[in-house]
Design goal:
2 domains, 494 residues, 11 helices, Rossmann fold, 21% strand, Glutaredoxin, alpha+beta, single chain, 22 strands
Length: 494
């Protein structure tokens, strides 16, 4: 009988079940141990591989050397709107700095969605109220700010040749500026700027009055540069440690003895920033003429760039590294009241020793330079000029040498009010002067750090094509899904 049969023995004995479970546990532990060991080894011998077409090249050896010199933590804050075109490039590059050195800490702050954190960052770095889209480097309580306008180079050749009205971004110069910023903070001795006084210049010691230059002095300190007042009266000479001399809006004449001292400073490889207002009886015309710059007593207008408050908004830039990052900007450089500053032949020296004067900013082709500006500034074709009128130039003599090596550099702008406390935060004014200062003191780029090419994709559609795409997205795709659903429903009913 079936009831008399013995029950079937169990498939696994208790000992066999224990052995199987123990084996599974050992396997799991072994797998976890292998994962931990692989990660341990990978953390010390890692290699990053970029899979996208827009590969981020590895950091240059000079950048790695600078990072290796860090002895304290470097805090980097990306104070940016994530929708900006360069945001991804900046973040990818800074992640490489972070991977290359454990002392680099990168954080991002979106000033649009994080107003409280944005206010804290601005207060800590002493940024102006309108400053945005910057990268802030902090080391031992000192800050260096790199602005978005410094991080691109544009191809303006077609624009300057009159063949096109478009300007394309051709390269991203982030590594050169980021490594330079870090090196600036590591430097034990900051550069020093001197501010000429004694001729009713803009007041550099206050940031509260609209005509003061306190914000410009803060900008110098943000760039790790000290600043001191410099009277050239008596036996005073321009100090030997002067990295940059600023002449900002003198009203009363500069004494011939002071002119001689300025010329001696320039001849020994000095760096100077001349900001000269309309109708200023400063007596610097002859000095600048010797260096290839013609400064005329006039006022510049531009029907294509005058705003309702009579300020000039100039968007025509030369092919120079100071202004090359701007290309065509939405707002341009804003100058309240400008005079013409024109390159002229016949400066000091001959041949390769002659100063090289290059236009930085000019009016559009419909600009005017009017000499009789005291009577309503009416254009007189017999003595006034019409066309592209330069208002800012860069001067260089002696090649690309260091500040101590004898190369002379100057930037001359036919306005001084565009950097006062009221106007410096307008449009690209702050970026322009920051680029000019960096070029004057040889900080725009470190040798060996090449720009990274930028690939931009442009989609161009006609109105008919745009309408077709719109109907496909609004009607075609939902309609196709609906039709497929109806087909399934009918088949199930049949």
């Amino acid at each position: 009988m079936p009831d008399d049969l013995d029950p079937a023995p169990p498939s696994f004995s208790a000992a066999r079940r224990f052995g199987t479970g123990f084996g599974v546990l050992v396997g799991i532990l072994a797998f976890l141990a292998i994962v931990v060991m692989v990660n341990f080894i990978a953390a010390r011998h890692h290699r990053r591989v970029a899979l996208s077409e827009d590969r981020v090249p590895p950091l240059a050896p000079v950048s790695l050397q600078v990072l290796g010199a860090l002895t304290n933590n470097l805090n980097v804050t990306v104070f940016f709107d994530p929708d900006e075109a360069l945001y991804t490039h900046i973040l990818q590059l800074l992640r490489q700095y972070e991977h290359a050195s454990p002392r680099v800490k990168v954080t991002g702050v979106n000033y649009l969605t994080e107003p409280a954190r944005a206010a804290q960052v601005k207060a800590a770095a002493k940024l102006g109220p309108n400053v945005k889209d910057v990268v802030i480097f902090e080391l031992n309580g000192r800050h260096r700010v790199v602005r978005q306008g410094e991080l691109s180079e544009y191809d303006t050749s077609q624009l300057l040749a009159g063949k096109s009205q478009s300007v394309k971004r051709k390269s991203f110069t982030g590594e050169s500026h980021f490594t330079s910023a870090i090196l600036t903070l590591i430097e034990s001795r900051p550069l020093h700027a001197y501010y000429l006084v004694g001729h009713k210049e803009h007041d550099p010691e206050t940031a509260s009055t609209s005509a003061g230059y306190g914000k410009l002095i803060l900008l110098l300190r943000d760039n790790n540069m000290g600043a001191s007042l410099l009277p050239l009266t008596g036996t005073n000479e321009v100090p030997a440690d002067c990295s940059l001399l600023i002449v900002a809006g003198p009203v009363t004449p500069v004494h011939p003895n002071e002119i001689e001292k300025l010329n001696r400073y320039l001849n020994r490889g000095g760096r100077a920033l001349f900001l000269l207002p309309v109708a200023g009886n400063h007596g610097l015309e002859e000095l600048l003429g010797q260096w290839g710059v013609e400064l005329r007593d006039d006022i510049v207008r531009d029907a294509a760039g005058d705003r309702t408050d009579s300020h000039l908004t100039l968007k025509t830039f030369g092919d120079h590294e100071i202004v090359r990052p701007f290309g065509i900007t939405q707002n341009g450089l804003i100058l309240p009241r400008a005079r013409s500053v024109t390159p002229r032949p016949g400066g000091q020296g001959q041949g390769s020793d002659a100063p090289q004067v290059r236009m930085l900013v000019s009016t559009s082709p419909v600009g005017e330079a009017i000499a009789d500006y005291g009577r309503g500034a009416r254009f007189d074709p017999r003595r006034d000029r019409r066309g592209a009128i330069p208002v800012a130039v860069a001067v260089e003599r002696g090649g690309l040498k260091s500040v101590e090596g004898g190369s002379t550099r100057m930037v001359v702008v036919g306005d001084s009010d565009f950097l006062d406390n009221r106007v410096i935060d307008y449009s690209i004014n702050r970026d322009f002067i920051a680029n000019a200062i960096n070029w004057l003191v040889d900080r725009p780029r470190l040798v060996g750090l090449a720009p990274q090419p930028v690939r931009e994709l442009v989609f161009s559609m006609s109105d008919a094509q745009a309408r077709s795409v719109r109907w496909i997205l609004l009607a075609g795709v939902p309609g196709g899904i609906l039709a497929f659903g109806l087909l399934v429903w009918f088949r199930r009913q049949s």
